[in-house]
Design a protein that fits this description.
By secondary structure, the chain is α/β, with parallel strands linked by helices. It contains nine helices and ten strands. The protein has a five-stranded mixed beta sheet, sandwiched between helices. The chain has a five-stranded mixed beta sheet with strand order 8-7-6-9-10.
Length: 263
């Protein structure tokens, strides 16, 4: 199964192509707030290097949040545009769970943390149960570092850019009975490769996005609220329309891949 995955939940975006367990390619870059101008070229470059067309894939996966409001909107809208142009199935993958799943074999509670706004953090708690099974101990939350610290069980393993940014504040608010350890470096930043692996499982199980989708914000973006009040299209809907037109134009002019011609 060939899968294209998009991860834009932080300032660092990544795009990956997987064929079952084999990584065909990955493109990652610092996007800052420029996800909108960088994402489609990155996808186009990755497909070209892999000698694949969008129509030759089996599914799409997108990191659904929580995380950067702008990044998540851009990633989801782009995937919706690609889905509309190709008819591929789309899986929405919770960002924090994808981060936790990169730490295989850890029996202690795992707490992925990402920055929110106003010095708050997104977090959740997961536990690896063995044999590829995971348990969600606490669903996605948003709050102060103090509130997070007061919610942690003993021996929690901390990962994520939010932990890096707020480690001092979280540690200072921990109850005396609670100790935490720091997880491996590779788990600190969301990865499109893990998004692809989780999304592939969902597509194989028939867990795919329907016609109405929404990012996992945890707290709603002010921009979304204002657009609803005004009766206009949301940022996701507007970008989805733009992506549909761009993808349709690219598909129309791109030559067929070598793999396809040789069949």
């Amino acid at each position: 199964m060939k899968i294209l995955a998009i991860e834009t939940a932080t300032a660092w975006q990544s795009v990956a192509l997987l064929d079952d367990d084999r990584v065909l390619g990955m493109h990652e870059q610092e996007a800052g707030g420029a996800h909108g101008s960088l994402l489609l070229p990155a996808i186009d470059q990755l497909l070209s290097k892999s000698h694949l067309r969008l129509s030759e894939l089996d599914g799409l996966c997108c990191s659904a949040g929580p995380g950067s409001f702008t990044g998540i909107r851009v990633g989801l809208a782009t995937c919706l545009g690609l889905r509309a142009a190709s008819g591929l199935s789309l899986a929405l993958v919770p960002t924090l769970e994808a981060m936790a799943r990169t730490v295989q074999g850890e029996s202690r509670p795992l707490c992925p943390v990402l920055m929110s706004r106003r010095d708050e953090v997104y977090w959740a708690l997961f536990r690896w149960m063995g044999e590829g099974q995971w348990k969600r101990l606490v669903s996605e939350q948003v709050g102060t570092p103090t509130a997070l610290a007061q919610s942690l069980p003993d021996q929690t393993v901390m990962i994520g850019l939010g932990w890096s940014a707020m480690e001092k504040e979280i540690r200072s608010a921990l109850p005396e009975s609670v100790t935490v350890t720091v997880g491996p470096d590779h788990a600190f930043r969301p990865s499109a490769i893990q998004v692809a692996r989780m999304g592939m499982e969902q597509i194989q199980q028939g867990v795919i996005a329907g016609s109405v989708v929404a990012p996992l914000y945890v707290q709603r973006a002010e921009a979304e609220i204002q657009y609803e009040r005004s009766g206009g299209l949301s940022p996701v809907a507007r970008r989805r329309k733009r992506v549909e037109m761009k993808v349709a134009a690219r598909l129309a002019r791109r030559p067929r891949s070598k793999n396809t011609r040789n069949r």
